Fold this sequence. Notes:
There is one protein chain. The protein is mainly alpha-helical. Helix 4 packs parallel to helix 6. It has helices at residues 7-18, 31-48, 52-77, 84-110, 118-145, 155-193, 197-204. It has one domain (4-185).
Amino acid sequence: MIRLKHIFSLLALCLMFGVGEASAQWTVIDPSNIAQSIVNSTKELTQSTTTAQNMVRNFQETVKIYEQGKKYYDALKSVNNLVRDARKVQQTVLMLGDISETYVTNFRKMLSDPNFTSSELSAIATGYTRLLEEANGVLGELKNVVNITTMSMTDKDRMDIVDRCYKEMSRYRNLTTYFTNKNISVSYLRAKKKADTQRVINLYGKGAERYW
């Protein structure tokens, strides 16, 4: 069994030699920094924004950070033929990217949704931020486990923690999806009262009807 403290190095090599020059950024890009930058940007947005119009403008910085990070996640997705342990680490990191994508993609739509007030949008952004912070904490624990300084841990101890991190990250990804769907359901119900559900369906897709 390959030792877990070597997994990140293995992934780095796979990126550098498997998916092109741009992908070598694994060695200098930390996904936890990407997530934290999105969190910081969103916190600034919710603390300084008083109108929906300003929120739309200020959210562009969050989108910019996400789009820069997306290049990293796309490169990581293309890494194949990893050993089982490295694959689980990879998937845990990618789920953090899924959480970020769910937030950015859907919140951008919510900003153009007339069924939400600016204060509600701020609360929704705060909810996403909390979920992303918690998920990023899981990634921090994962990084500590594979750190070469944790010499006292056995491979079984490491795999047990990797498995727990994987399950926790999966839970936060599911919570993010649930949170998104519940907010969309609020918009759908409000639109239904105004006989304007088609607008919501056009914005979020036909699946919006399933959220209620």
